[in-house]
Structures are given as C-alpha cells and as structure tokens.
Design brief:
Oligomer: single chain
CATH topology of the largest domain: Aminoglycoside 3'-phosphotransferase, Chain: A, domain 2
Strand content: 15-25%
Shape: globular
Radius of gyration: 20 Å
Number of helices: 12
Strand order of the largest sheet: 1-2-3-5-4
Largest sheet: 5 strands, antiparallel
CATH architecture of the largest domain: Alpha-Beta Complex
Number of strands: 11
C-alpha cells in the first residue's frame, strides 16, 4: 500500500522513534485488523495526516453494532498509541453514538479501532448559511451532553484518568512570558492580559463535562441515518463553555473581511446564548481564550496570526 510522502513525514517528525516503529508495523496492523474484524477493500482516505484512516467494508457475517450503513461500510483508524489517541477511544466509548460517530471495535494498546462510516459524510463547513451551521452545531452539543456529565464519568473511574484535562492545555500559556523574556511578544499585551485575568473565573465554572475538545466545522459530519455527528473527539475534561472556542474561529481561514467576520461572530454569540443559556460575556471570553491558546500552539509556525486576528475581533465585541 502506497502512503503519501507528506503522511510519512508528519508521522516521523511528530512521533520520532515511535513514529518510525509505527510506520514499520503499519502493514501488519492493517492485515491483523482485517483478519480480526473481517475487513476487505481497505483503502486510505486521500487526506492522511496524524493517523492512518481508511475506508473498508466489513463482512455481513459479523454481528454489527453500528446503527446504519446497509453495505457494512466502516472506517479503520490506526495511530501511534499516545495520550490523545487513548482519550479519543475512551470518549467515543462514553458518548456511545450520542451526537458522535459510533465506535464499533477497538484495540487501545495497539492504537487500532473501527468506526461507523458516515454517509454522505458532508462536513458542516460545506453549508453556506452560517446561522444554520451554528444551530446544527448547538444541536450536536446538546445531543452529546447526556453522555458527558461529570457525574457519569466519575462512575467510570477506570476510564477517568484517560481523559485530557483542559486546564493542562491552558497551563501552556504560562510559557509565553518566559519565552518572550517577561513580555508577550507579538501577542497584544492587552488581549493576553485579559485572557490571563479571565481564566480563573472561567475555570471556576461548575458546568464541567467530557467535551469534544476540537469541536469545529470540519469535525461535524452528516449521516443520512443519524443526522449530524462529531468525529475525532479529543476527550477533554473541562467547563462546557470551552466547546465553542474552536467553533468560533472556524471554518479555518474564513476571516477575509474584518467587518463581515465580526457580524458573523455576533450572530453566533446570539444563537449560542439563546440556545445554550450561557452568558454573553462567557461566550466571548471562551472564544477569546481559545483563539489566544491556538495562536500560541501554532507559534512560530505559519498561520498562527490567523487565530490572533480572530482574537482581536473577539476582544472588540461587547
């Protein structure tokens, strides 16, 4: 099976020695999963990035857990076993198809799992009406909520430690000032200080759940049988308000006109406030905080300034 050079490069640079081992073992992992789960016609998706993801068909002789896919079409996903991959599998198990793609099989230790195939698989980003997109996104959040209450998580103590803590992500912002010798570098000082001062209050929010963690227009797909569902959850424990952070800066690259993006953002805030019952300021602060965190993650890579420009717009909204 031919793998794109870009995929091989990403795996090697991201996971180093573990990535080399993964690439060497990948053909065997695909073959073993095919035999174990009766898969055929395994062929990779065209946009491989950090995981091997492939379309496949599953023999109809195998009892299926999926809620659809008449032709037994499935998705095989294999990744380098690491914290985010394990938290993704744990999250999919807990969501159990509630607003999320259904996990069919998994082998956590080897980083191999099987998912339902979403047909037609239309991405939310493909819709043109942003109000419609935002309402759909809120619908999906609300469908996931029934499975993500912290009380439910605590009942599943063995799996609890597998999830990522949102506070660990935001702790990374503590590295900004040391990196810039006490300053904030290219990040506007007033915006960065606003985020610093707002985080304690945001994390004091008791509405803590298991959230997707990377909830945006490219991770929300349409299933003809089950409606709009999320894929690729990070599996993060934190205040529910953070969920709209990635949504607010996406679709990525959509900030082409400052004025129209600001109008769009205000419309989104109004819809989320009405549908979720969250305070306007809370929505703005989560959007702003995530935008700054996203910019720091991407710094000094190309594209970090997109998130910061979003943050500048969020900071202007009252």
């Amino acid at each position: 099976m031919h793998l794109p050079d870009s995929f091989i490069h990403t795996i090697r640079t991201t996971f180093e020695k573990d990535g080399e081992k993964f690439l060497a073992a990948l053909p065997s992992l695909i073959e073993e999963a095919s035999q174990q789960w009766n898969l055929r016609d395994v062929h990779p998706v065209p946009n491989l990035s950090y995981n091997f993801v492939a379309f496949a068909k599953r023999s109809s002789t195998v009892p299926r857990k999926a809620r659809g896919s008449a032709q037994n079409e499935v998705i095989l996903k294999i990744g380098v076993p690491h914290r985010e991959l394990k938290s993704e599998i744990a999250a999919l198990k807990l969501f159990n198809g509630n607003g999320a793609c259904q996990l069919l099989e998994s082998d956590e230790e080897r980083g191999v799992f099987l998912l339902e195939s979403l047909t037609p698989g239309t991405m939310l980003s493909e819709l043109e009406d942003d109000d419609e997109r935002t309402h759909i996104a809120v619908d999906v959040i609300q469908r996931m909520e029934s499975a993500s209450l912290l009380a439910n998580l605590q009942e599943q103590a063995p799996a609890f430690h597998k999830f990522i803590k949102l506070s660990d992500w935001f702790d990374e912002l503590k590295n900004v000032r040391p990196h810039f010798e006490g300053g904030t570098g290219p990040f506007p000082k007033d915006i960065f200080e606003r985020v610093e001062s707002s985080l304690p209050e945001l994390f004091a929010d008791k509405d803590v759940k298991l959230i997707h963690g990377d909830f945006h227009h490219f991770n929300i797909l349409k299933s003809e049988e089950r409606g709009w569902l999320v894929i690729d959850p990070k599996g993060v424990i934190g205040p529910a308000g953070y969920e709209i952070g990635p949504l607010m800066i996406n679709p990525w690259g959509s900030l082409s006109d400052w004025t129209s993006f600001k109008v769009q953002t205000e419309r989104r805030i109004d819809i989320i406030k009405e549908r979720m019952g969250w305070e306007r300021e809370k929505i703005i602060q989560w959007a702003l905080s995530h935008a700054v965190l996203s910019a720091w993650w991407d710094y000094p890579n190309l594209g970090w300034d997109y998130s910061m420009n979003c943050a500048k717009i969020f900071s202007e909204i009252k």
